[in-house]
Design a protein that fits this description.
The termini are close together. By secondary structure, the protein is an all-alpha fold. Helix 4 packs across helix 29 and helix 17 packs antiparallel against helix 18. It contains 29 helices and two strands. One of its GO terms (molecular function) is mechanosensitive monoatomic ion channel activity.
């Protein structure tokens, strides 16, 4: 027991007794008189008078101490006082009545007697209605609400009487009404089971129960089972569903978002491949042009360089013709370098390859842009509506388990997934309470950004100089015989670029280690931004080299078909990037794991680098979109690359990597990835392709746009042909000149897209603010309840103790008891 050393510690034992007695009297204890009487002391004796004097002094001292305690308690905040006042052990009757009538305490707290009474009344009314009409509609469901009958839940006899009366009333109803009545009763499952046994205990009830389900209900139930079975099969047929659950449960949502991003890119490329294959590649493959056979020797490097026999294939731009394919066309009637000629018969079906080429590329970019904007808006909406960590944690703890899971593997995966999500939520709650970094680390951050920006600038400058050097070397050997060394030299520029993409992210990780970020999510964002600057700089230099130098002056570079050359360059870049990714995954991550465990003596494996791998995916997809105009089958190469990359990264992750030491919840990672894919990647590729179609002159010796000033003139030529053959279609020429040739339409279309994105973002931002205001309002409602209850209790105490404020019962949190214990 805690000993309180009061100023009265020097008084003798009888005096201590009386001091404690008067102390209790200060607290409103009525036993002080009994204590004095029990002590056997008579009033008026000398000892009694002396004790009264001494105890009066002790009372004054104790009263002064109690006043000091009260003053210190009054200095507390209002919220803490209200919280302490709510922690009482005893409340007044009026306060308890108010508390019991609050909606938050009355929902679901009805007594069984009250429920049974209400159900009894409803069943009686239903029975009377049966007697009057003898026809009950099956669509009207009985309800037990709306009857405010109060009963004492502690009266067992009355409850049994009500229960028996309810059973008798229900037995007089039909089987369907009995079942619906029991189903609508807000009782527990055990109570419903007891009532069901009592209601259907007779033979008639059992026979009715066995025949109560009609055929239509059985058919509906069977259809429901079939529908849910089909939904389960469709969900199980999703691509990589089991593997994604396994990776998400073991490594967290950050790594899972990377593999989900791979699946998203795969779906985009499947769409591109289907559109180009159906409307562009397949018609040209059915009616191939006659090309002169190539005398190039097959060495095997053509698969990596795209030259040789691949240059005269459906893979590249130069293979496609500028003719119109007719249904009566035969390949033996075609001339070299062209397809079937045009026809003057307006009733004959014709397929214009240049028009199909231009419109197919335009439609694919247009639909891809719409899907990206829609996906980004939906992702923003999901990320804005993420619950707070505390509320989401409660949902995860109590509502996240799926009780339909029965297999051991599924149970283990689900438990791992829930465990990882709880760790992430706990780390987010803990991370929100950490202090921010000091200002002394600004010098380290400034040095890190200087190193990152400087290395990015020198890497882009080096690639630009090396590209110019390689083209000069190619012009020197252009007139000689093509050899294996010359073909291998074509892979030098993609190799240098891939080396830069491989080494500089490692430098960025080293710089990030120097910065020593406390939050893993901040470190990830910084790494993504630095890698994004690197990729954008490299792609900007390459686009300037291809479109600003080679496409503008193809004769000076010795190119007869510069579109096929640019397509071959993009094909080589995509393949070499994949080769370097494979080498880094197989050897780099494995060697780093051995080095970390063997040399550094670390028991943990390396962590998966999300920033590097995500930006590699965005870089490869940007190359695919850039090459769509020059290499129509490049999405097929990207599909194979993504399929292999998923399985390879998954195996490497399970063997060579380990989950992060600091778990974190990637609630907005998918939104960030889609945003980066939309604006820097897709927007840059769209601008480059649009610039090529509208401003660069196509080659005159190859491709579907030969002998045209610009690529978009193919639509104008087609509209003029329609006008000459059929005057009713002359309006198409006006539509083409206003919508396609005029760049104002493109600017308006882009403006509409940006306006839709802006409006949707503002709507989502407003919804996020409303959600935060509603959450704050809920918190204020709780504070209002505390304030009202405390005020009600204070009013009650004032009415109960109007003359002695010091005798009012103090709250439990602010009560002070002085225990005087004899040594």
């Amino acid at each position: 027991m805690h000993v309180y050393h009061s100023p009265l510690s020097g008084i003798n034992k009888p005096l201590l007794f009386h001091c404690s007695t008067f102390t209790r009297s200060l607290r409103g204890d009525d036993t002080a008189q009994d204590s004095m009487t029990g002590a056997g002391l008579e009033s008026g004796s000398p000892e009694t008078l002396e004790m009264e004097v001494l105890t009066t002094e002790g009372r004054d001292r104790l009263a002064s101490q109690m006043s000091d305690v009260r003053e210190r308690a009054d200095e507390r905040s209002e919220e803490s006082i209200q919280t302490n006042l709510l922690a009482r052990k005893s409340w007044s009757t009026a306060t308890l009545r108010v508390l019991s009538s609050m909606p938050s305490r009355s929902i679901g707290q009805q007594s069984r007697l009250e429920i049974i009474s209400q159900c009894n009344i409803r069943s009686t009314q239903l029975r009377r209605y049966h007697r009057q009409t003898q026809d009950v509609s099956l669509s009207s469901r009985p309800s037990i609400r709306g009857y405010g009958i109060e009963a004492d839940s502690e009266d067992v006899c009355e409850e049994e009487t009500k229960r028996q009366e309810l059973v008798n009333n229900l037995q007089s109803l039909s089987a369907g009404d009995r079942v619906r009545m029991l189903r609508a009763t807000p009782l527990s499952l055990a109570e419903k089971t007891k009532l069901r046994k009592l209601v259907f205990s007779d033979k008639v009830g059992q026979s009715l129960l066995s025949s109560q389900v009609p055929c239509c209900s059985l058919l509906k139930r069977a259809l429901y089972h079939i529908w849910f079975g089909c939904l389960f099969i469709l969900s199980s047929l999703q691509l990589w569903q089991v593997a994604l659950k396994r990776l998400g449960g073991r490594f967290g949502t950050g790594v899972l978002s990377y593999f989900l991003f791979i699946r998203t890119l795969l779906l985009f490329n499947v769409f591109l491949f289907l559109i180009n294959g159906l409307f562009l590649v397949l018609p040209q493959a059915i009616h191939p042009p006659l090309h002169t056979p190539s005398s190039h020797r097959v060495t095997g490097l053509e698969l990596f360089t795209g030259t040789g026999y691949l240059s005269n294939s459906l893979m590249f731009y130069g293979y496609y013709t500028n003719s119109t394919i007719n249904t009566s066309c035969r390949p033996d009637k075609a001339t070299a370098g062209t397809g079937c000629g045009t026809t003057s018969d307006p009733h004959m079906m014709a397929y214009n390859i240049p028009l199909a080429y231009c419109f197919t590329i335009g439609i694919t970019f247009f639909i891809t842009g719409i899907v990206l904007v829609y996906s980004m808006s939906k992702s923003f909406e999901r990320s804005f509506r993420v619950f707070k960590s505390q509320g989401n944690m409660a949902i995860k703890v109590f509502c996240s388990w799926d009780f339909k899971v029965s297999k051991k593997m599924s149970v283990r995966l689900q438990s791992e997934n829930i465990t990882t999500q709880l760790k992430e939520l706990l780390s987010e709650v803990k991370g929100g309470e950490e202090e921010k970094g000091r200002l002394s680390g600004m010098a380290v951050h400034l040095l890190a950004w200087s190193i990152s920006l400087g290395s990015t600038f020198f890497c882009a400058l080096g690639i630009h100089c090396f590209a110019k050097y390689m083209h000069l070397r190619r012009l020197e050997h252009a007139e000689g015989e093509v050899s294996v060394v010359h073909e291998a030299r074509l892979l030098a520029l993609p190799g240098v670029v891939s080396c830069g993409n491989l080494l500089l992210p490692g430098l960025f990780n080293l710089v990030s280690w120097m910065e020593n970020f406390n939050s893993p999510i901040v470190r990830l964002y910084v790494s993504i931004f630095r890698n994004l600057l690197l990729k954008v700089s490299i792609l900007g230099v390459l686009c300037y080299h291809w479109l600003g130098k080679i496409a503008a002056e193809p004769e000076q570079h010795g190119l007869q078909c510069w579109e096929s050359f640019v397509g071959q360059e993009l094909y080589r870049f995509l393949l070499v990037d994949f080769i370097f990714t494979v080498l880094y995954t197989v050897f780099g991550e494995f060697i780093w794991k051995r080095f970390s465990q063997g040399v550094l003596r670390r028991r943990r494996k390396p962590v998966f680098d999300i920033a590097r791998n995500v930006l590699e995916l965005i870089y490869g997809q940007t190359l695919t979109w850039l090459g769509l105009l020059f290499t129509p089958l490049l999405p097929a190469v990207q599909i194979l690359k993504l399929l292999l990359l998923f399985h390879m990264k998954k195996s490497s992750l399970l063997v060579n990597c380990q989950a992060s030491r600091k778990p974190w919840r990637a609630s907005q990672m998918s939104t960030l990835f889609i945003s980066l894919l939309c604006f820097p990647s897709f927007l840059g590729a769209t601008v480059s392709v649009t610039y090529t179609i509208w401003t660069i002159k196509p080659s005159s010796g190859c491709g579907p746009f030969r002998n045209l000033p610009f690529m978009f003139h193919s639509g104008k030529q087609w509209a003029q042909e329609l006008k000459s053959t059929n005057h009713k279609l002359a309006w198409l020429n006006w539509v083409h000149s206003c919508l396609v040739e005029n760049p104002l339409f493109l600017f308006l279309l882009a403006g509409v897209f940006l306006m839709v994105i802006y409006i949707h973002t503002q709507v989502l931002d407003g919804q996020r603010k409303i959600i935060s205001l509603l959450q704050e309002q809920i918190e204020n409602e709780g504070k209002d309840k505390k304030f009202l209850i405390t005020s009600l209790q204070a009013i009650h105490e004032k009415r109960q103790y109007p003359l002695s404020p010091s005798s009012r019962p103090q709250p439990q949190g602010s009560e002070v008891e002085y225990v005087l214990v004899e040594d």
